Automatic annotation (TrEMBL):
This is Sulfite oxidase. Keywords: Heme, Iron, Metal-binding, Molybdenum, Oxidoreductase. Its cofactor is Mo-molybdopterin. Pfam families: Mo-co_dimer (PF03404), Oxidored_molyb (PF00174). PANTHER family: SULFITE OXIDASE, MITOCHONDRIAL, SULFITE REDUCTASE.
Amino acid sequence: MGIWNKRDDMIVHQSEPYNAEPPPGALVDAVTPLDTFYGRNHAPIPRLDGTSWRLRVDGTVDRPLELSLDELRRRFPERKVLATLQCAGNRRADLVEFRDIPGQVPWGPGAISTAWWTGASLADVLTEAGLQAETAHIAFIGADVSQDADPPQPFGASIPAAKATSSEVLLAWAMNDQALPAAHGAPLRAVVPGYIGARSVKWLQRITAQTEPSDNYFQWEYSLLPPEADPRKAGPGDGITLGPVVIHIAILRPGKGTPLPSGPTEVTGVAFAGDDRMVTRVDVSADGGTTWVQADLNAPDTPWTWQHWRATLTLPSGETELLARAWDSAAAVQPESPATVWNPKGYANNAWARLHVTCDR
Ligand SMILES: Nc1nc2c(c(=O)[nH]1)N[C@H]1C(S)=C(S)[C@@H](COP(=O)(O)O)O[C@H]1N2
Ligand SMILES: [Mo]
């Protein structure tokens, strides 16, 4: 067992703060086991005492609340949602190959995982607090103070009030029917299905209803800057603040560098459409994009989950490139090359998936 109860073969990009992804082939199941779920942190993982911990709900509300974990569990109906979390930096490594992105974790395709989340619906808690009419955003603050932020501050984020009051957004205390692990935000985290992982704030301490988006460093740090921007000079209001996930695809098997015979080979992968969209088609190619076949695509288990796909491709002997591309239910397409979507912080790489393979005859 590796650190934070993760499997031994996690690809650990950093141990402090802990940033790790599973090998791609470990993501072929619909639900990701806890020891396999990726971990993304901007500060040391705090160990909070669940009995003295309180959640504050304040801001533009009629009745500010202060809730213990027990009160939260007793006063609100329990809800369970199967949802995929994906870091906005997933597949940054492919962007880095095109042009370097210093100071950011070089994620492969494994910064994505799916779990059953159990908790109270954020909408129910906000109803109890009584949102005032001018509320436009719901802000979250965690307990972990990040030195990556300027100035150092607890990790925070916000989501639009319309999303926050949708039934799928949870305040979760359990993951895959186990108590939420410390590394994933115990005793309580936000889970915002369909949005980039950074909005699902862990070690949640405070929820504030407000008229403006959060001014937390990480709210605006997770934004898409134009290629020519200097990320050190960027601040609030620069670029596109990231919310709903952009359509994603990855090849999971065969793995990078696996020796393969030429001839028919099963290729499997995953695709994920953001917000309440679904993936509607996946094409794969074994000849660098000259010809394509349509993959078998699983229906999503819920509007908030990834979808696995598979296809049998006839691989030529020698070198070739496997390609995969996806469409979503809003007919969004993917760009061919990471070069098109390169951005200074390396977020939201939604280019076609590519895998270089060499086959024996
Ligand atoms: N408090 C807090 N919440 C956080 C983070 C963090 O560093 N601190 N990281 C965010 C990011 S960028 C992602 S992608 C997800 C990762 O969740 P996981 O570690 O449970 O996989 O948590 C989000 N919530
Ligand atoms: Mo993230």
